[in-house]
């Protein structure tokens, strides 16, 4: 499995200027290559190398390997879509490989190539990141964020064998409740939703001002909200995987791809609906489960909140409110999200029969 080790660089003022100038020059070179690729309709790395390599070395005074990497950056961008011309921001991330980047985890420094030569720069990292760096493999990205430089290094670790489950922990995703398990555990989204509502009001006021300082604050607030939501998802995913691991069960999730296109909500709920980070939560649960050797099963989400677990009756009226389930056929009732999670667990058991306890 590939994971990312994120470390913060602590350069001197001179080193910071060198990194910034390198990033700007590399991205300027990327735009120059993109112009050539667009004009010649040559988008492959091999063809662009022959078209641009000598010119880039001479015109932008980049080292051989930085030139190779910037050509690869442009070629990779056009792999997604060659029908739209690619434009690169001056402070966009740039890629380093082992020829122009070497790690010294023992003394927490990194040797990195710049337009002014190699720079030995200290970095900050916790124990987990240092452990990940021992398994580093492949390239690293130099990223400028909020005035600070970070390195995102790809690391490759071995996955433990996946345990065959003795049952499934169903998980229902939602907006009011971020996640609800078939065991009855509810991860409420009140705090996250209230925070997003407050940020939405603040965004509206800042957008109405339109000043440069207001725009800077908008970006800062956006990142703060994103970090909080991701941390919330990390915490929920960690707890779900721990419960499944301890009880020797797999985890059953809904396949919610395209859910926003298939569902409609009131106008007042559109913001919450569009900011629903269920895919991020699913990804975090999946990779944490792989690290723990816990099986994850994705099931069909249709009618999970309308199906009665007692008699099998499917009816929209079975759910009179967001939190209440009451079957119109047999009067079975309970918490709607918990019942939906139980249906999800049951579908996983049908799709992937488990070993009986």
What are the salient characteristics of this protein?
357 residues; alpha+beta; seven-stranded antiparallel sheet; five-stranded mixed sheet; 10 helices
- How would you write the strand order of the largest sheet? 2-6-7-1-5-4-3
Overall pLDDT level: 88
Main sheet characteristics: 7 strands, antiparallel
- Please trace the helix and strand order, writing H or E for each element: EHHHEEEEHEEEEEHHEHHHEEEH
- Strand content is 15-25%
Structural class: alpha+beta
For the terminal residues, how far apart are their CA atoms? 30 Å
Q: What ranges have pLDDT less than 50 throughout 5 or more consecutive residues? A: none
**Range of helix content:** 40-55%
* CA-atom Rg in angstroms: 25 Å
* Total number of helices: 10
Query: Judging from the principal axes of the Cα atoms, what is the shape?
Result: elongated
Tell me the number of strands.
14
Summarize the structure.
The chain has 357 residues and is of the alpha+beta class. The protein has ten helices and 14 strands.
Can you describe what's shown?
The structure is a single chain. The protein is of the alpha+beta class and 357 residues long. It folds into two domains: 155 residues, no CATH class; 184 residues, no CATH class. 46% of the residues lie in helices and 22% in strands. Helix 1 crosses helix 2, helix 2 packs across helix 3 and helix 5 packs antiparallel against helix 6. The model has no long low-confidence stretch (mean pLDDT 88).
């Amino acid at each position: 499995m590939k994971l990312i080790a994120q470390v913060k660089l602590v350069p001197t003022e001179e080193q910071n200027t060198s990194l910034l100038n390198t990033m700007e020059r590399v991205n300027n070179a990327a735009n120059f290559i993109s112009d050539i690729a667009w004009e010649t309709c040559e988008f492959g790395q091999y063809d662009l190398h022959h078209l641009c390599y000598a010119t880039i070395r001479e015109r932008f005074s980049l080292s051989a390997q930085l030139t190779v990497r910037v050509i690869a950056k442009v070629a990779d961008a056009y792999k997604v879509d060659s029908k739209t011309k690619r434009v690169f921001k001056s402070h966009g991330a740039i890629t380093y490989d082992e020829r122009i980047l070497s790690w010294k985890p023992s003394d927490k420094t990194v040797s990195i190539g710049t337009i002014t030569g190699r720079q030995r720069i200290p970095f900050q990292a916790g124990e987990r990141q240092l452990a990940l760096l021992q398994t580093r493999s492949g390239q690293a990205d130099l990223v400028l964020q909020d005035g600070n430089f970070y390195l995102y290094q790809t690391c490759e670790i071995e996955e433990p064998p996946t345990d065959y489950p003795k049952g499934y922990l169903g998980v229902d995703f939602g907006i009011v409740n971020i996640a609800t398990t078939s065991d009855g555990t509810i991860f409420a989204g009140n705090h996250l939703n209230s925070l997003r509502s407050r940020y939405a009001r603040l965004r509206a006021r800042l957008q109405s001002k339109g000043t440069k300082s207001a725009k800077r604050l908008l970006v800062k607030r956006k990142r703060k909200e994103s970090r909080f939501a991701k941390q919330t998802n990390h915490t929920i995913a960690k707890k779900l995987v721990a419960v499944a691991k301890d009880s020797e069960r797999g985890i059953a999730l809904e396949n919610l791809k395209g859910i926003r296109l298939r569902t409609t909500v009131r106008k007042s709920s559109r913001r919450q609906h569009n900011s629903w980070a269920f895919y991020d939560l699913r990804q975090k649960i999946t990779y944490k489960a792989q690290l723990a050797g816990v099986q994850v099963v994705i099931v069909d989400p249709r009618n999970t909140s309308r199906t009665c677990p007692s008699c099998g009756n499917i009816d929209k009226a079975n759910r009179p409110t967001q939190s209440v389930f009451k079957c119109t056929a047999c009067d079975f009732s309970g918490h709607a999200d918990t019942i939906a999670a139980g249906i999800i667990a049951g579908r996983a058991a049908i799709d992937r029969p488990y070993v009986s306890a």
